[in-house]
Amino acid sequence: MKTSDFWYDLPKELIAQDPLEDRASSRLMVLDRQTGKVEHHVFREIVDYLNPGDCLVINNTKVIPARLIGVKEDTGAAVEVLLLKRLPGRESEWETLVKPGKKCRPGARLSFGDGLLTGEVTEIVDDGNRYVRFEYDGVFEEILDRLGQMPLPPYITHALQDRNRYQTVYAKYDGSAAAPTAGLHFTRELLEQIREKGVKIAQLTLHVGLGTFRPVKVDDVAQHHMHTEHCMIDAQTAEMINETKRAGGRVVAVGTTSCRTLESMALEDGGVRSGEMDTSIFIYPGYRFKVMDALITNFHLPESTLVMLVSAFAGKEQIMDAYAEAVKERYRFFSFGDAMLIC
Question: What is the DSSP-derived secondary structure letter of residue 58?
Fold first, then answer.
């Protein structure tokens, strides 16, 4: 299976640059994966496609303002640091992506906010990422909130005026370098309507890394090396999902991050276990889904691992046909774009 099999032509003007003022007013394409039938709706009508006894699974990760702009202390040259993940057991040390990286070798000293935050490159690791040990007075998260910027995807061409628009309304646990964007369409009112219908809402956590935006650079899909992300399912969530499966309800994942967590923690009987792990699961056509029964997702980049995942769930030809129709109907694409329900 070739990466080029997942290419589609997308006019640049269909890449959404800003979120809609009303989150739930995005368009919603509904794809029946058994019949291939496509319907067009507004996202708030998602409630009509959820049944009593279903379980909606959301990712409650929170995006941190992980983009830091500073200088090298010795030369004053500009440097940009993207925080990827805090190193286990090392409270002040992070794995980062540094630009420009060539001049930031181990021992390089960095300064941010006129010295409010400083750092030292301690090690160069896989993919050219750097470990940086930070020094500061006070609480790191408060300093980051003051100095950091939201790490928007590379196809977003301008800064976001309200950083909360790149958070879900249920964001809870700091740790992501990118938003679980399928969840951006939900409002608190819509979630309450879903609960009132008798649908359970289960929360899990996967901290999204910038690897989600990395292109597939190999011709053979099976040779792609998937990035690693940390995920967690607590005992209450696991029991809610397992109870749903036992009762014959559907597990509806909100976003590919929820899907990857469910399938990473899957049991052979279709349930999930509780716990936490680093997952590098790569889902592409041929994969047998164990837990997920339906998926709410956005429209993904051509040749990306995400479009491969949805193709695994609905079939590549059906997804390519649906994407072609979305282009024809002028849907908005990618992080701030419209949504798709695959059921």
Answer: E
Around Cβ 333, how many Cβ atoms within 10 Å? 23
pLDDT of amino acid 102 = 85
The DSSP bridge pattern shows strands 78-86 and 200-206 to be unpaired
Per-residue pLDDT, averaged over 81-87, amounts to: 90
Q: What is the DSSP string of 224-235?
A: -----EEEEE-H
Residue with tokens 């837990």: 291
First to last CA, the chain: 25
What number is the average pLDDT over the span 166-191? 96
* Location of structure tokens 């990466």: 3
Q: Are 170 and 205 in contact (CB under 8 A)?
A: no
Residue-wise pLDDT tens digits, 210-248? 777 678 989 999 999 888 899 999 999 999 999 999 999
**Comma-separated ranges of CATH 2.40.10.240 domains in the chain:** 67-147
CATH number corresponding to 3-63+162-342: 3.40.1780.10
Model pTM greater than 0.85? yes
